[in-house]
């Protein structure tokens, strides 16, 4: 149990390190820097075996994801989304279906099993934290690693590439 508390302490320290950017920079730059600091430190610490091998993190992570999902879903107001940004809803729906179609088509070409296709799709479209819940529903815990790794690689590439593209499109540098 103490190592798990240490993991929570490390997560808090990483969060505070990212939050410190708000003390040093203007708000626009601080958000970008905070995201980059949190992402980078999370990646760096994940390579430390003592951190990576802490017991009970799977169960604790599932618990917090369930709490997070409950809180986020309780705040959802679909009627407001439909009335204020219907084109965004159409765009997101279209994008998800095209991604799913491309994903399944490539999986069929490369003869990838159904559980792996489902789990990597969830990791890519939803997020890696939802992977263990889907793996539990599939009754196949072996695909958790594949899904989480795929999702994290997507997050890492997406975070840095997304920020770079945003600044390129804005024509602004840090």
Keywords:
174 residues; mainly alpha; 82% helix; 0% strand
What does this structure look like?
The protein is mainly alpha-helical. The chain folds into 2 domains: 1-55, no CATH class; 77-174, no CATH class. Helices cover 82% and strands 0% of the residues. The protein has 10 helices and no strands. The protein has helices at 2-19, 21-24, 27-46, 49-52, 57-75, 78-84, 86-109, 114-125, 131-138, 144-170. It starts with a helix and ends with a helix. The mean pLDDT is 90.
Q: Which structural class should the secondary elements be placed in?
A: mainly alpha
Q: Main β-sheet, in a few words?
A: none
User: How many domain regions?
Assistant: 2
Judging from the principal axes of the Cα atoms, what is the shape?
Answer: globular
* Overall pLDDT confidence: 90
Q: What portion of residues is helical?
A: over 70%
- SS strand fraction: under 5%
Q: Identify low-pLDDT runs.
A: none
Q: How many strands in all?
A: 0
Element-by-element helix/strand order: HHHHHHHHHH
How do you describe this structure in short?
The protein is an all-alpha fold and 174 residues long. It is 82% helix and 0% strand. It folds into two domains: 1-55, no CATH class; 77-174, no CATH class.
């Amino acid at each position: 149990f103490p190592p798990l508390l240490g993991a929570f302490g490390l997560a808090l320290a990483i969060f505070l390190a990212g939050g410190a950017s708000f003390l040093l920079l203007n708000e626009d730059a601080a958000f970008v820097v905070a995201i980059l600091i949190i992402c980078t430190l999370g990646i760096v610490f994940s390579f430390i075996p003592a951190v990576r091998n802490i017991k009970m993190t799977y169960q604790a992570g599932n618990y917090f994801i369930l709490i997070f999902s409950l809180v986020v879903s309780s705040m959802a107001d679909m009627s407001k989304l439909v009335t204020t940004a219907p084109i965004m809803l159409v765009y997101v729906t279209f994008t998800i279906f095209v991604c799913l179609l491309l994903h399944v088509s490539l999986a069929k070409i490369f003869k990838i099993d159904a559980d792996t296709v489902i789990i990597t799709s969830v990791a890519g479209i939803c997020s890696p934290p939802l992977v263990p819940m889907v793996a539990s529903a599939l009754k196949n815990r072996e695909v958790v690693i594949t899904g989480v790794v795929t999702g994290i690689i997507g997050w890492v590439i997406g975070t840095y590439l997304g920020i770079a593209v945003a600044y390129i499109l804005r024509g602004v540098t840090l």
